[in-house]
Amino acid sequence: MSIIEKQINPELLNTLYDMFNSITIPKRVSTSKRKNTTGMKTIIFGLVKYRVKYKDKPTHGISRFTNLYPEIYDELNTIIKQIYPDFTYTTIQVNHNGVIDYHTDTNNLGDTVILSFGEYTGGNLIIKNNNIEIEYNMNCNSIRFDASLVLHKVNNDIIGNKFSLIYFTSKK
Length: 172
Prior knowledge:
Blueprint: E1 4-7, H1 14-21, E2 41-49, E3 60-62, H2 64-68, H3 70-83, E4 91-96, E5 100-103, E6 112-121, E7 125-129, E8 132-136, E9 141-145, E10 151-154, E11 159-168
Antiparallel strand pairs: 1-9, 2-3, 2-4, 4-11, 5-10, 6-9, 6-11, 7-8, 7-10
């Protein structure tokens, strides 16, 4: 298991923080069987799989939030290229004060990058490998790992205003 951890200069995230605070991030309508995801505030940028299939219509395309907030999408792309210039991805999930139980991201292909920022405490990322838990303080920190293979969760003790960015490539 390879994990790369990088600290992030908080100034790099100031513009994005202001952008997120100027929009309404909707509560997630969970289609997964994961616990503690309903009610999480989430938006997706980049390539997505459409939930409803129509005859003679594509099954994948650009998310509505990418079209609705192109300036945020551009800023998200700028940030990741400054931290991991070689990282490739198709999709960016943004969680606001997101909490989730242990899971693997089975629909992800290759590495995932998670980074968090904001005015908050708690909400640490826990990665579990061979029954050993490693806890990461994610505030202005990033973790790169294969989330499809490694169990991970986010603690349910967030106080404040936390944004998490999850960059990944979808298998589907």
